C-alpha cells in the first residue's frame, strides 16, 4: 500500500468589513490508495502570546519526513507582529504533536519572523523579512 500526504493550509481568516482576524490552521491530508482523511494542526494554546487574532498561523509551511514547520509570522511574542514558528512531529500514538516553538530571537515590531520557512532533516531555516538590524527592512535569516 503506497502512502503519501498532501498539505492544505487554511491561513487566518480576514473579514473585510468587521476587521475580524481569526487564527489559521494547517491540515495534513494523508492519502492512502486515494482515500483522504484530514488531520488538523491547530494553533498552539500556550504561551500567553500564542493563538491571537491576526497572527497568520499557517501562512508558510515546510515538510520533511515526519516533521512539519508552520509559520505564524504576525505572532506578537516579544513585540507586535514579531513572528514565531512551530515544529510538529508525527507521533504514532497521538498523531501530530507540537515539539518546538521558535520565537523571534531579536523581536521588534513588524519583523515578520518566519515570513519564509524551510527544513531538511533536523535543519531549519527561517527568514525574517522586515528585520531592521542592517537598515530598514534589510531582513535576516536564522539557521537552527
Beta strand count: 13
Global shape: globular
* Count of DSSP-assigned helices: 0
Query: Major sheet, described briefly?
Result: 4 strands, antiparallel
Average of pLDDT: 74
**Portion in helices:** under 10%
Low-pLDDT stretches are 1-24, 31-38
| Beta-strand residue percentage | over 45%
Order of helices and strands: EEEEEEEEEEEEE
**Ends apart, CA distance between termini:** 35 Å
Computed structural class: mainly beta
**Rounded Rg:** 16 Å
Overview of this protein structure:
The chain is an all-beta fold and 144 residues long. Strands 1, 4, 5 and 6 form a 4-stranded antiparallel beta sheet that branches. Strands 7-8-9-10 form a 4-stranded antiparallel beta sheet, with no helix packed on it. A 3-stranded antiparallel beta sheet has the order 11-12-13, with no helix packed on it. The protein is globular, with a radius of gyration of 16 Å. The N terminus is likely disordered.
Topology:
Elements: E1 3-10, E2 13-14, E3 21-22, E4 25-32, E5 35-36, E6 39-41, E7 57-64, E8 67-72, E9 84-91, E10 95-103, E11 113-120, E12 123-128, E13 140-143
Antiparallel strand pairs: 1-4, 2-3, 4-5, 4-6, 7-8, 8-9, 9-10, 11-12, 12-13
Amino acid at each position: 500500500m503506497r502512502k503519501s500526504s498532501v498539505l492544505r493550509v487554511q491561513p487566518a481568516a480576514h473579514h473585510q468589513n468587521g476587521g475580524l482576524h481569526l487564527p489559521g490552521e494547517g491540515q495534513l491530508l494523508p492519502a492512502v490508495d486515494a482515500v483522504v482523511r484530514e488531520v488538523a494542526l491547530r494553533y498552539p494554546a500556550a504561551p500567553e502570546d500564542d493563538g491571537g487574532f491576526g497572527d497568520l498561523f499557517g501562512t508558510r509551511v515546510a515538510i520533511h519526513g515526519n516533521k512539519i514547520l508552520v509559520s505564524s509570522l504576525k505572532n506578537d511574542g516579544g513585540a507586535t507582529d514579531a513572528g514565531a514558528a512551530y515544529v510538529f512531529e508525527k507521533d504514532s500514538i497521538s498523531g501530530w504533536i507540537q515539539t518546538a516553538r521558535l520565537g523571534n530571537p531579536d523581536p521588534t515590531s513588524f519583523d515578520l519572523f518566519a515570513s519564509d520557512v524551510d527544513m531538511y532533516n533536523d535543519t531549519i531555516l527561517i527568514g525574517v523579512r522586515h528585520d531592521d538590524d542592517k537598515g530598514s527592512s534589510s531582513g535576516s535569516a536564522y539557521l537552527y
